[in-house]
Amino acid sequence: MSIRFTRKARRGMVALTVAAGLALGVAGCGGGGGDDKPDSSPSASRSSGSKPSAQEGQSSEPLAELKGPNGLLLQITSAVRDSGGFVTVNGDLKNDGSEVAVIPAALSGNETEIMNNGRSLGGATLVDSKGKKRYYVLRDTDGRPLTTTGFTSIKPGETMDVFLQFPAPPSSSTELSFQLPLFASAAIQISG
Description:
Radius of gyration: 18 Å
Largest sheet: 4 strands, antiparallel
CATH topology of the domain at 57-189: Immunoglobulin-like
Strand content: 25-35%
Distance between the termini: 22 Å
Strand order of the largest sheet: 1-2-3-8
Structural class: alpha+beta
Order of helices and strands: HEEEEHEEEEEE
Number of helices: 2
CATH architecture of the domain at 57-189: Sandwich
Region (Disordered): 32-66
Signal peptide: 1-23
Organism: Streptomyces swartbergensis
Protein name: Secreted protein
Number of strands: 10
Keywords: Signal
CATH superfamily of the domain at 57-189: Immunoglobulins
């Protein structure tokens, strides 16, 4: 991959992140029109407390489930190719165990640049067996992985939304293998 392409891709990723943040900020600041009636939608009646809204492109059935150490379970809910040349993988990291699960440092991978930025899912890869290539989690200009970061443990029964971004494989490659250190690997379908 040329340096010029990498720089353009990173600039585009930063612009996309800023735009998404601004959109979420505007949506969060929107008023309810002074109407204090409770929301009668089905999602408001759940007794499990507040939960983030479904991520774009997710289906109710996960694409794959990967079992890891200490009762950790990663459910991949979507893998979407976008026009900017990226694949964004969304999922839920859940502690199915009965004790607090400490997130292993191995999930961050073994690259010094990523390890210096704290705990993350930076060790994940997508493997294209057909194209005989391995794709690593993208990094920003400061070397931070473009994935969920900053978590050290998950309480029993707790679920955390996670995301990872990779360079997109050729459009002819739609079935890839998702790999995360200490977890079983799984085949996933890329949409878009």
